[in-house]
Design goal:
By secondary structure, this protein is mainly alpha-helical. The chain has one domain. Helices cover 80% and strands 0% of the residues. It is built from 21 helices and no strands. Helix 2 runs parallel beside helix 14.
Length: 427
């Protein structure tokens, strides 16, 4: 009964527009007081502090800041120019450029919203100018931005790693193959649509143009090599790699490209602090709820209830996919990971599902949720940039989302897809 009232209270608070982080904290604190008495409330402050001060979480503000600095120093423009030189010669080339640029940018930002905001602001107007329908332009930029949460570094993966206790580095490695497959699948869909609707070709392929664009973008391309190379080889941890990303972004943007001034750096730091505050408050208040649920053994009871129905791993994976797809409709990925993962973790472990494998499943599910209304944070951002109706964009976006759904099924039932590189490098 207490759990039902908690859920009802949470829904009511969210519906009256109370921020999710505040709603979580209020509901958890009231539940703790109702169960253990008012004397327990002073402990809430300690739980809040402890929940938000885990060392791996430092990577989140650092990657956000690195992405902000990169956005301010022309890196997006250079990546787009290189992608255009490489794939702009095919039918519907500008849509290929959008997907290719997202693949590059995903290795830097770790955030789908940052991806679509940075690239969409350049590519969507360019596609509209070349005669592409606005819904198609918005759909391509929106769906391809989701690759940023699959390809490392990924902020949702960092959060999942903290919540589950699994290796963030192994999660990063596991995302490489699914991310590339997703990008190739979206390119295939974009090409088919472009051929059927006779979208334009950009320019003929020229090696000289490719070389010029490569020289301009070479330092931008070195960023993921420096960051991910250091992480994957074990020279730095994921958190240290995030710090390295900030340093590299400042050096490349300020001293090599010479496009980073104090005003742009200040703006990037303010925006980074604002985004970080939202995530970290959510992490802190969810720790209070997690403490209460753990004390009441809710995760264990949920796991046992499902195992009493079935112990078939494939059925359990299917149920978890449906559950997370539903959650993704209504919660942002950070909130969903923080709130739900600790609850289902005992079930995952009891079913013998690898935690890194499950991390990719969760990330993909919630990435799809970024594209599906009513919340659809990435889709909403793309529509805002394009000044397009969300339902008109969704009609086109469904073709690209189908690629993500197919990828989810592949990752779920063929664990070797995400785990091949993990097992190769980490046994």
């Amino acid at each position: 009964m207490t759990l039902f009232l908690m859920f009802l209270g949470l829904v009511v608070l969210i519906l009256i527009d109370v921020p999710i982080a505040i709603a979580l904290g209020v509901v958890a604190a009231v539940a703790m007081a109702a169960t253990s008495g008012l004397a327990i409330l002073p402990n809430v402050g300690l739980i809040l502090f402890d929940g938000a001060t885990k060392f791996p979480l430092i990577a989140i503000p650092l990657f956000i800041l690195a992405g902000g600095i990169m956005n301010a120093t022309g890196i997006s423009r250079r990546l787009i120019a290189l992608a255009s030189a490489l794939v702009g010669f095919v039918k519907g080339g500008l849509s290929m450029v959008a997907i290719g640029a997202s693949l590059f940018f995903a290795e830097i930002s770790g955030s789908a919203v940052a991806d679509v905001a940075a690239l969409g602001s350049i590519l969507i107007p360019a596609m509209k100018k070349r005669g592409y329908p606005t819904p198609f332009a918005a759909a391509v930029c929106s769906s391809s931005a989701t690759l940023a949460v699959i390809i490392p570094p990924s902020i949702p993966m960092i959060l999942y790693g903290v919540m589950s206790g699994s290796s963030v580095v192994e999660l990063f490695v596991a995302g490489i193959i699914p991310g590339v497959l997703g990008g190739l699948g979206m390119m295939g869909v974009a090409y088919i649509i472009a051929v059927r609707r006779n979208y334009p070709v950009e320019e003929a392929f020229q090696l000289r143009r490719v070389w010029t664009a490569f020289r301009e973008a070479v330092w931008a391309l070195l960023l993921p090599v420096i960051i991910l190379g250091g992480i994957f080889t074990g020279w730095v941890t994921a958190t240290e790699g995030a710090g390295l990303a900030v340093l590299a972004a400042i050096v490349i943007g300020g001293f090599i490209y010479r496009e980073l001034d104090w005003q742009r750096l200040r703006t990037a730091m303010i925006e980074g602090a604002s985004q970080t505050a939202v995530v970290m408050l959510l992490v802190a208040t969810s720790a209070v709820l997690g403490d209460y649920l753990t004390e009441q053994q809710v995760p264990q009871r949920v796991a046992q209830g499902i195992l009493d129905l079935t112990d078939n791993r494939f059925v359990i994976l299917a149920l978890l996919n449906v559950f997370f797809l539903t959650v993704g409709l209504f919660l942002h990925s950070a909130a969903a990971i923080i709130l739900v993962v600790p609850i289902v973790l005992p079930l995952v472990e009891a079913a013998g599902i690898d935690l890194v494998h499950f991390g990719l499943i969760v990330t993909l599910n919630l990435g799809i949720g970024q594209q599906t209304p009513p919340v659809a944070s990435v889709l909403v951002t793309a529509c805002s940039v394009a000044k397009a109706d969300i339902w008109e964009v969704t009609k086109v976006n469904v073709f690209f989302v189908s690629v993500l759904v197919a990828l989810l099924i592949l990752v779920t039932y063929v664990p070797a897809v995400p785990l091949f590189l993990v097992r190769m490098f980490y046994g």
